[in-house]
Amino acid sequence: MITAIVMVEVDAESINDAAQRIADLPGVDQVYSCAGDVDLIVVSQLRDHAELAELVPGHISRVPGVKRTVTHIAFRSFAKRDGEDAFSIGLEGA
């Protein structure tokens, strides 16, 4: 699986409509509206690069109001460790 994070710049008056249209696209897992350099952040998990190549230029970029996209591909995922789980390692037999 490939995890893609797509930063999307949208016309101000189109943000809500564009966000919903993008969220409804097959292959899109989450859409966040945000403050900063971009208006929307899209997270997708796709089978391969061909699906990504179809999703971004073929669908996201064509949503009315979308002005620009920048795509990032994730290499690894890191999460905060649960402290209790970390401290209980090896204590089952104690």
From TrEMBL:
Pfam families: AsnC_trans_reg. It comes from the Bacteria. Residues 6-76 form the Transcription regulator AsnC/Lrp ligand binding domain. This is Lrp/AsnC family transcriptional regulator. It comes from Nakamurella antarctica.
